[in-house]
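User: Here's a chain of 114 residues. Predict its fold as C-alpha cells.
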Amino acid sequence: MTDPVVPPAQPAYAGAAAPATFPGKTLGIVAIPVAIFFSVVGIILGFVARSQSKAAGVKNTPATVAIIIGFVVLVLTIIGWVIFGIAAAALLQQCAGLEPGQYTMENGGTLTCG
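Assistant: Prediction complete.
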C-alpha cells in the first residue's frame, strides 16, 4: 500500500505582532496637546510619563516634547500677560485726571475714559 499524499499543513496565521508598549508612552502622547492648551498640566503629565518610562528603562520622546512645549507656552503666556498689564497701565495713565467722556487724540484716534 502506498501512503496517500498529504498536502503540507498551512502555517498558523500569527497575525500582526502586538506593538511593544512601555509605561508612560500613552501619557506622553496625551501630554502634548494638553501642554499646548494647559501648559502647567501638560508639564506635570510630561514629567509623570517620563518618570514612568525611566523606571522601565525606556526613553520617552513624546513626554520630553510635551515638557518642552509646556515650558515654551508657559513663558509665552507670562510674556503676554506682562504686555497686557503694561498696556492696561498705560491706558489708565492716559485717563488719569480726565473727566469721563471721549477725547480726540493727536493721532486722530479717540480715547474713551469712564
